Amino acid sequence: MDDPRGLRWDGEDFEFIEQTLLPHEEKWIRTKDWRVVVDAIKRLAIRGAPAIGVAGACSVVLAKRCSADKIEFEQAVEAIEHARPTAVNLAWAVNRLRDRIRDIGEDEEVLRRLVEEATAIANEDARMCDQMVEHGLELIPDGASVLTHCNTGALVSYGIGTALGVVRRAHEAGKLKHVYACEARPLGQGARLTMWELDKLDIPGTLLCDGAVGSLMQAGRVDLVLLGADRIAANGDTANKIGTFQLAVLAKRFGIPFYVAAPSSTFDLNAPDGTSIPIEERDADEVRNYRGSQISLPGVKAYNPAFDVTPVELINAFIREDGIFIPPCEFPVRRP
Ligand code: MRU
Fold first, then answer.
1. C-alpha 215, offset from chain centre
2. CA–CA dist 14, 288 (Å, integer)
3. Residue 265: CB within 6 Å of ligand 1?
4. For residues 69 and 213, is the Cβ–Cβ distance under 8 A?
5. Could you give the CA distance from residue 150 to residue 262 in angstroms, rounded to a whole number?
6. Least-confidence region, from 40-54, 84-98, 99-113, 212-226
C-alpha cells in the first residue's frame, strides 16, 4: 500500500502534488511564491475544501516573506482569499491568520505568528480528519457498498481526507464491501483522483459515469451515499461538487441514506441557508472539452457551475470531527 498525499509544509517551503496531471504523473511542486499557490488553486492543481484552506494559510506566510510593504502584503492576502469562492475553508483560514496578527506592528513577530498559525491549521486539519473518520465508521454497516462523488481523500486535506477517509477506515475495519465512484464531469475528480487513491490503498472500487447512478441504485447495489462538502450553511444546506444534489434526490427516491462528512472549518454559520452560498461558475471550455480534446463545437454555449446546493432535508447525517449531527440540528461553533 502506498499512502497518497497532496500537500507538504515545513514553515519555509510549500509543496503540492500537481493534481491536474494525476493519475498519469505524480509531480510535486515546491515553491516559496504565493502566486504559484494561488494559480494552483485556480487551476485545481490544489483542490478540495480543506486543502484549499491549508494552502491559503501557507501562502499568506509566503506572501509576508516576499512583500515589500504592508499594502503589498494586504493585496496578496486579498488575492489569496478570493482565489476560489465556494469552499469557505479558504476565507476561514485566511481570516484566522489575519486575526492572529491584528494590532501587531513588528515584522518579525508577525511572521513568527503567521508561521505558527498556518502550521496549526495544517496539523488541526489532519487531526480533524482522524477524528471524523472514527465517527463516520459508526454509520457504516458491515459489508457496505458505498457510493461517493468527486474526490474527498488524502488529496483534499493535510490528513487522510473526509468522506474517502471514512471509506478507507471502513475498509481497514473490514466493513467495506465496495466503493462506487462517480466520474465527476467535467474535470473528472472521481475518475482521475478517487480511483487513483483507491488504487494506492488497495480498496475495491468501480468507476461510473455520473449519469449511471440511478441505474446503479435501482439495481440495489448502493447501501449508502457518502461525500464531502465545500460549504455548509447554518441550516445544513450543503454546497458540494456539481451533481451532488441529483445524487441526493435519487438516494431519497430509493430510501438510501445520504451522509456528508466535513470538518467544522467547512461550516459557514453566517450563511443562514444555501441561498447565501456563492457558487463558482467555471470556464465553458471545461464542458466543451475533455482533457484538452474538443468534444463539442467550439462556439456552443455551456453551463458550468462547479457546485450545487443540496437542501438539508435530503441529508440524513453530517459527520464532523466532534461527532455525528442528525438534522434538523444546531451546529456548534468551531473551537480549535
Ligand atoms: O472543484 P473541487 O474539485 O475543488 O471540488 C471539491 C469538492 O467538491 C469536494 O467534494 C469537497 O471539497 C469536499 S473535499 C473534503
1. 27
2. 33
3. no
4. no
5. 14
6. 99-113
Helix or strand or coil: residue 200?
A: helix
**Domains, the chain, ranges and CATH?**
7-130 (1.20.120.420), 132-325 (3.40.50.10470)
Atom of ligand 1 nearest to the CA of 306: 1
Contact between 16 and 29 (Cβ < 8 Å): yes
Distance CA 280, CA 278 (A): 6
Task: Please tell me the distance from the alpha carbon of residue 189 to that of residue 38, in angstroms, as a whole number.
Answer: 19
- Weakest-pLDDT range from 74-78, 173-177, 187-191, 298-302: 298-302
Dist CA 219 CA 206 (whole Å): 15
Q: Are 31 and 62 in contact (CB under 8 A)?
A: yes
Asked whether 228 lines ligand 1 (CB < 6 A), one says: yes
Provide the angle, in degrees to the nearest 10, between the axes of the packed helices 34-43 and 70-81.
20
